[in-house]
Amino acid sequence: MRLVSGSNGISRRTLLKVGSAAAGVGALGALGGLARPALASSTSATITFAYFGDPKQATSMQASLLPLVKKADQNADLKVVGYNGTDWNDFFAKILTQIAAGAPPDIVGVATEGVQLMAGKDLAIPLDDYVKRDMSELKEMFDDVDPILIEGLMYDGHLFELPVNFNAGNMFYSTKLFKQAGLERPPENWTMDDFHGYAKKIGALPDVNAFDWIVRLWGSWTSFMYANGGNLLEEQRFDNGDWLWGAAYPGNDAVKTRKGGWKWGAPTANSAPTVEALQLMIDLRKEGLAPSPDVGGGGTLQGLFASNRIGMTIGGGFWAGGLHNAGMTPDSFDVQYFPKWKEQKHLFGVVGNAILKSSKNQDLAWEVVKQLSAADAFDLQFPGNATTPVRRSLMTAERYKSTGPEHWNVFYDTLTKFPNTTPIPAPPYYNALANALNRRTTEAVASGNAKSALDGLQKDLEAAAKV
Amino acid sequence: MSPMISRARVGRALGLVVLIAAAIIALGPLVWTLSTSLRTPAEAFVNPPAWIPVNPDWGNYSAVFEQIPLLSFFINSVIVTGLIVAGQTATCMMSGYAFAMIRFPGRGKIFVLFLATMMVPLQATMIPVFVLIKWMGLANSLSSLIVPALGGAFGTFLMRQYFLQMPKELGEAARIDGASPLQVFWFVYARMAVPPAAALATLNFSGFWSEFYRPLIFLSDQSTYTLPLGLVGLQGNLGTGSVSVVLAGVVVALVPSVLLFAFAQRYFIEGLTTGSFR
Amino acid sequence: MRGEALFGYAMILPSLLIVMLFTAGPILASIGLSFYSWDVISPPRFTGLDNYEQLAADQTVLHSFAVTLGLAVSIVVLEILIGLGLALLVQQRRNTFVRATFRTVFYLPLLASASSVAIVMGYMFDQKFGVINYYLGLLGIPNVPWLTSDFGATATIVIIAVWQQVGFAFVLFVAALSTMPQDVLEAATIDGAGPGHTFLFVKLPMISPTILFVAVVGIISAMQLFDQPYVMTKGGPGYSTTTTVLLIYQTAFQNLQFGYGSTISVLLLLVLIVLTAMQFFGARKLVFYQ
Asked: What does pTM read for this prediction?
């Protein structure tokens, strides 16, 4: 240790060393800044498209969509980003964060859960004018898509998205367990009593949950609620949708019942049919036919079903791919319509693409949005039957051969056979509703009292609706 | 043998039993994770679990790399954690030393200020930090994670404690010999601070490597995701991912930390052992 | 000496800058935001004390504090007791290899990210098919509703947090125990003190500074509990595992009420200051410095 004699106090070297340390701190920050996603600076416009799904598809989608973007504007660029998450809540938190950060995407893939939030908060633009202008081009799409799905993307008479995929809540069952319990495939118009009977027979098998469910808005006890003629919010409709129906579905009787989108009214969380539905789940548990649902949203449901621990549960087209990933053979599970209680009424959610108001390239974004709804774009975005296509033409036996189920037709026929199929209640305050629903549901199951929990939910929703 | 001795022996044997039981509890979930990651999803719920799988399915591990850009997450985590640890070790050593060894006006008051900020949880300031980051133009980048973490009150506090225990005479002797304060720091005390600095670095490493919340809020672009955040993606859209693959991802994320700890354990444990807290 | 003072300032400058900018500044901003209503999309709206009035009447927030406090105290107390107990037992071992192995084993859980732990525990604690209930079943204990009941979910969070955090307390106690001056211990034995007596009146006071440090850091960390409730229980069942920070996150980032979220944050800050001050005050009576 050699000590250098000489100056005392701050020497130039000291300042240099300390100063460079401070600069080093700054440099470290700058270095991290290099990792910032690069936005092409030499192009005139970059369209950013964000969707909720497997991010793996982003690169291939970007590659195939880019030529189209270039065709519309030679100097434009396209950036596709996919976000995974356990629920739509996570995805929305991300998108809103981006908006707050001043770097919003131009196009966002939004599901029913968020359509009204985006429309109501003026985040997305209505596509009416574009649709009217390009109707000749879009006609074939409308021919291929059931109007129920289109109305699901409308708000206040305006269309906010072009649809891409959807999922209706059907009843999935394990063919193995059914066979073991000596049960045949349930008929299309089976009732709640039938369902109960099936559950009892399966429940007699060892180490098995006759029925299982998770706590969430889509395909939870909410399916039972719909079948019982109940809902969380009053079911009303907007008017002023006729501009679309006349142009897109001329002469089609099916659109007679279509209006201008779902207008979710006052909360009805503690109405009799709703309470009855939740109480049914509690009763099923008491009878030992269904377990208490896992609180976190149940990443375990798929695993349990795949290990043949669950007889029946609610799923949608997305499970064709999901169960396949979990190792199930195409013939080990199948699907049927949801049973009839007071009515045979299914819930569904639909996903489409919206253009954000903040986008500086709306015309260009519209070109991309149209392309994303094209028939050949579906499998690019959602390979492996991870969800159900909105296009009837894509529902083929070929598609479901490798994954199953055998009665894949149920997925789309839910729309064609049952015009009363209704979207999940997703008002502009969806996030607050979802959180409150989850909380109160688990509370009800834990306490065994559906009525008091739903009274609480009613209060939560009334408060949320006011904000 | 007198009763006193055999009672002590029984006590020690009991102690070992308790330790082994505790070790089983500590390791249990980790071993379960590893063994389940080598089986199919359907077997994840088979009880009793086959702790050592008969036909280990390594495909789950390759699936991890196929399903998520694990390498990109890994690199991001390395960059973020590495820079934070390097930065904090440097700044905390400097500030800890100054608070312990250098007299300057307001030293006491500024140190209390430091301590006070330690008592504020990250989430309480998350919103304004987020706005600040957006204003600074750092949003959506790794910088948003790195820059705010380059200084730390906890690290400063820790280093100060250790410097306080070092003999002041050495520094005084060097000053008498004519060394500047910087030279005293660099040549006398800095090397003695290596063990606690290594301890701080290791603690910081595991802390920031496994960080979930700040990346969740600050990062929106998947290309910037760090490991813990990216792993959630394995759970799949609407929960359609495979359990075994999810667990394989957890194992893969754990390995670097374990390796680093095994390697640095010597410095880490010794670092803490050379200083006691006042 | 003037030069020395400048040197001191220069040395603390980087830390000070970062901490002031990214912690102290945001604290002030957070306090400021608490007087506004802001949904991120539209400009902030000044609302004065409205948020605070809302807070006073908001059962959910107050409940979350009760939940968080309960969780924090349980976790830290267990952490200290188990950590200290294990440290004493490990230090008793004469074989260095055995000591080193146990030290590694007990530190390992700390290295996994909280969200990974939550995923794994979600599977292990499943009521009907999880591993834990399976082995408990072998002991004759019926299926515990870990994640499906109020008490079960709370207990699960405590168990998981303690499992993960014990290593931190453990290592610090090992360090404290191994640096205890032998002469004091020998004097106690010569004076005729038994092992229990030695522990209570000699060892314990000597490691009390470490206990204080672990308690302070532990409470601060546990009051920030977010990862486990967020991934495992989403705050449920009901509101039984909704920690304050989870509530802040949901209020701000999901319900788009950044202003109100800041108000809750301010309350949390005050609570933490009080808690820490209480601990240091109590420490004056109980903690022994050499």
From this structure: 0.79
Residue A398: other Cβ atoms inside 10 A: 8
Do residues B251 and A110 make contact, with C-beta atoms less than 8 angstroms apart? no
Q: In chain C, what are the domain boundaries?
A: 57-117+155-285
pLDDT at B95: 92
Instruction: List helix spans (H) across chain B.
Output: 3-37, 59-67, 70-101, 107-118, 122-136, 143-146, 153-164, 168-176, 181-183, 194-209, 213-218, 227-232, 243-273
Residue of B nearest to C218 (CA): B119
Decide: A389 and A404 in contact? Cβ < 8 Å: no
Query: pLDDT band for position C151 (50/70/90)?
Result: confident
What's the one-letter identity of residue C165?
Q
Report the C-alpha gap between C147 and A292 in whole angstroms. 9
A197-206, B123-132, B243-252 — which one is most confidently predicted on average?
A197-206
Question: How far from chain centre, in Å, is Cα C245?
Answer: 13
For the range A205-208, what are the long-range contacts, defined as Cβ-Cβ under 8 Å and sequence gap of 24 or more? A205/A177, A205/A180, A205/A181, A205/A311, A207/A309, A208/A177, A208/A308, A208/A309, A208/A310, A208/A311
ipTM over 0.85: no
Q: What is the tens place of the pLDDT at every residue in C207-257? A: 777 787 778 778 888 888 887 888 778 777 778 889 998 898 888 877 778
Domain containing A68 equals 12-166+349-400
pLDDT digit string, tens, across residues A149-206: 999 999 999 999 999 999 999 999 999 999 999 999 999 999 999 999 999 999 999 8
Q: What is the DSSP letter of A285?
A: H
- The size of chain C, in residues, is 290
- The CATH fold of domain C57-117+155-285: MetI-like fold (1.10.3720)
Range with the poorest average pLDDT among A118-132, B82-96, C116-130? C116-130
Which of C128, C233, C248, C250 to probe the A interface (max A CBs under 10 A)? Answer: C128
Q: Is A74 helix (H, G, I), strand (E, B) or coil?
A: coil
Q: How many CA atoms lie within 13 A of A23 on its CB side?
A: 6
Q: Which residue has the tokens 């007087």?
A: C35
Following DSSP, what letter does each residue of C73-128 receive, concatenated?
A: HHHHHHHHHHHHHHHHHHHH---HHHHHHHHHHHHGGGGS-HHHHHHHHHHHT-TT
Residue indicated by tokens 């050949």: A376
Q: How confident is the model at residue C180 (pLDDT cuts 50, 70, 90)?
A: low
- pLDDT attached to residue C95: 76
Q: Is residue A38 part of a domain?
A: yes
Q: Which of residues 3-32 of C touch A (CB under 8 A)?
A: 3-4, 6-7, 10-11, 13-14, 17-18
Here the tokens at position B260 are: 């680093």
Residue with tokens 């949608």: A316
CATH number belonging to domain B62-275? 1.10.3720.10
Q: Which amino acid is at A451?
A: K
Task: With respect to residue A428, please indicate whether it lies within any of the assigned structural domains.
Answer: no
CB interface of C with A, residues 124-143, below 8 Å? 126-129
pLDDT at B164 over 80: no
* Residue-wise DSSP of A294-341: PTT--THHHHHHHTT-EEEEEE-THHHHHHHHTT--TTSEEEEPPPBS
pLDDT of residue A28: 35
CB A148 within 8 A of CB A419: yes
Q: Which of B226, B237, B244, B247 to mutate to test the interface with A (most CBs of A within 10 A)?
A: B237
Return the structure tokens found at A109: 């893939």
pLDDT band at B268 (very low <50, low <70, confident <90, very high): low
Secondary structure class of A451 (helix, strand, coil): helix
Does A88 map to a domain?
Answer: yes
| A94 is a domain residue | yes
Whole-angstrom distance, CA of residue C14 vs CA of residue C158: 37
